[in-house]
Design brief:
332 residues, alpha/beta, Rossmann fold, Dihydrodipicolinate Reductase, domain 2, 2 domains, 6-stranded mixed β-sheet, 20% strand, globular, binds NADP nicotinamide-adenine-dinucleotide phosphate
Length: 332
Amino acid sequence: MRVAVLGMGSVGRGVLQMIEEKDLGISVTAVADSRSALIDKDGISIDEVLEAKAKSGFCGDRSLTAMDVVKKAAYDVLIEVTPTNADTGEPALTHILTALEKGRHVVTSNKGPISREFSRIRSLAAARGVQVRYEATVGGAIPVMHMLEHGLAGNRVLAVFGVLNGTCNFILTRMAAEGLTYEQALLEAREMGYAEADPTYDVKGIDPAVKLVILANTFCRKPVTLEDVEITGIDLLTNDALRLAEEQHCTIRLIAEAIPDRGILRVAPRLLPLSHPLVVEGTLNAITIETDMAGEITLIGKGAGSVETASAIIGDLLYIRNFHAERHPKKT
Ligand SMILES: NC(=O)c1ccc[n+]([C@@H]2O[C@H](COP(=O)([O-])OP(=O)(O)OC[C@H]3O[C@@H](n4cnc5c(N)ncnc54)[C@H](OP(=O)(O)O)[C@@H]3O)[C@@H](O)[C@H]2O)c1
């Protein structure tokens, strides 16, 4: 199976390294970053392209772009791992729609297009008879989409609750453990490289809300958008609130919840007993799925990281390889 990779940042490099290291029988025929691209239908050398990127900042030819890769390269699966734009989904949205139009499968970690244009992307993939998979958009390494789609197949999903933002969870953990103010904990998160220079999307709860939209669209029949989510962040939380919570053997976590039967789609700080399964520490993520047959299942794991996110992408790729092998037995 041949793949083209758009984006050579933390996730893109992690994916390339794992494809190389694990000898998965996957050939990389194109890569692109923001200012260059490399295309070779016979397969590029992953080591060479990683070295070139590290040395020069460019992965290939400066006269080629990501759209050249999408339109001209020979690939079966497009791996879209460029930066997220939650407002427009671009340029990833155009990359994804163009690849699907051409009858190519898509795997992405990019929340923007999947949260904004889920129905459009899904219907186009269905019309072209190809797969679009996005495990890495929610919960990093946690295989929540596989769980919803396969592990819990046949169950009715009644609700999903999650700690979906590692930066917020780190801040809340540090405020509770050390009595830090919100500002001190945010500064520490920045110093550790967990928080962006502009942490607004995380601390105001927009990032977990976007992930909640993706989860809800995956398991609910009624499509939802970011505008449907009631959002409260952690930026106004005082350490007095955490101290009071502790006096009751509780703590506070930023919980994203979708309960379709009650019309609830919300991200807000919630008081939870210390023994609650969603009380995870540091940058961990956790997701509880409540179902009619299986009851409650909680998954806990690393919500970000180069190789951790690559794990989710490789899982999607191997799923597609099986799907692809059934349809094109000689080409895999
Ligand atoms: N990092 C994580 O742990 C994680 C976890 C889950 C999901 N995600 C999502 O995965 C995606 C990638 O994250 P990341 O951390 O790898 O980001 P990153 O380190 O900022 O890397 C982004 C890469 O995309 C390239 N790029 C930017 N604009 C492009 C364009 N128009 N065409 C082609 N390439 C372009 C950049 O090129 P240059 O190298 O030239 O700047 C860079 O190589 C994002 O959507 C992010 O939200 C990340």
